[in-house]
């Protein structure tokens, strides 16, 4: 579903499974759909499972919500890699567990999952393995939740999949390696990529958001230009996404989309003046000389 549909589905599951309180182990996909704010606005009491008293909140909650790093299609397994164990606690104590995951996080088999379990922590921080790896495949009688629901989020992913050139962006595993080496990200941080904090940041965010939302808005149209095209992101990407190549292509789409728009009068006047100056060698030399003296 879309982000709004995912919020409605999760809110309905929380109401059906509990007493209006829910423990949430926050993660990228939950921030993407702004789930916490939506549940609170819907009159539900949201407890942060990663907060200082998160474990007590989880033990008291009848419903918990987590994100998912990967989904193994062959076995129907949800896989979460984390450092603090909040998602594992959510999958252990509450009676109802709701897992939210992006469509792009689905892998075919455990053989594929084995590669990613080694690849993600190494790319993210140089670790051989994540501190905690949790996997659950539905309800187990007498152990864990009585109900397990998985909500698959589209939110522009099928649009990216339909783009033959851009679909490689869906290979992103969220390691953040591209952001760690990006000189633009180093100076501006993550907020300029998406002020609401709902999308990926860094070089992959400059590709993902325009692909998912289009380049016809000012916010998304500016993102492909937030790069020096140095190529460092492509060199460190563990899944070999050609981020600079995608950025160049998206820049072309932005330019093409603006061709039919009238050029602002001040800009048009400046360009006419430059064209007139550069059309004659003497005028150009005089302009350069004047600028040098100034």
Automatic annotation (TrEMBL):
GO molecular function, one term: 4 iron, 4 sulfur cluster binding
Biological processes per GO annotation: lactate metabolic process
Pfam families for this protein: Fer4_8 (PF13183), LUD_dom (PF02589)
Residue ranges occupied by any 4Fe-4S ferredoxin-type domain in the UniProt entry: 163-193
The entry's keywords: 4Fe-4S, Electron transport, Iron, Iron-sulfur, Metal-binding, Repeat, Transport
InterPro entries: 4Fe4S_Fe-S-bd, 4Fe4S_Fe_S_CS, FTHF_cligase-like_sf, Helical_ferredxn, LUD_dom, LutB/LldF, NagB/RpiA_transferase-like
Domain of life according to the entry: Bacteria
Listed PANTHER family: LACTATE UTILIZATION PROTEIN B
UniProt name for this protein: Lactate utilization protein
């Amino acid at each position: 579903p879309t982000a709004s549909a995912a919020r409605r589905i999760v809110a309905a599951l929380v109401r059906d499974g509990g007493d209006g309180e829910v423990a949430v182990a926050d993660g990228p996909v939950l921030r993407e759909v702004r789930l916490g704010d939506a549940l609170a606005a819907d009159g539900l009491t949201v407890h942060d499972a990663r907060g200082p008293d998160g474990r007590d909140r989880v033990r008291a909650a009848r419903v918990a919500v987590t994100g998912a790093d990967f989904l193994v299609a062959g076995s129907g397994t949800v896989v979460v890699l984390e450092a603090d164990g909040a998602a594992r606690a959510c999958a252990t104590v509450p009676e109802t567990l709701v897992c939210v995951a992006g469509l792009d996080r689905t892998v075919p088999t455990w053989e594929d999952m084995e590669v990613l379990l080694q690849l993600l922590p190494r790319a993210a921080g140089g670790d051989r393995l994540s501190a905690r790896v949790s996997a659950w495949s539905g309800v187990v009688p007498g152990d864990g939740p009585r109900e397990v629901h998985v909500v698959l989020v589209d939110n522009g992913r099928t649009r990216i999949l339909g783009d033959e050139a851009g679909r490689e962006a869906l290979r992103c595993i969220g390691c953040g390696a591209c952001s760690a080496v990006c000189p633009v990200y180093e100076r501006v941080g993550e907020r300029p990529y998406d002020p609401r904090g709902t999308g990926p940041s860094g070089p992959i965010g400059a590709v993902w958001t325009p692909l998912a939302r289009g380049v016809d808005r000012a916010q998304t149209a500016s993102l492909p230009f937030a790069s020096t095209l140095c190529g460092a992101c492509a060199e460190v990407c563990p899944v070999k996404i050609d981020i600079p190549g995608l950025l160049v292509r998206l820049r072309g789409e932005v330019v093409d989309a603006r061709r039919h728009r009238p050029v602002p009068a001040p800009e048009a006047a400046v360009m006419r003046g430059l064209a007139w100056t550069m059309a004659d060698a003497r005028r150009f030399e005089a302009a350069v000389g004047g600028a040098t003296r100034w």
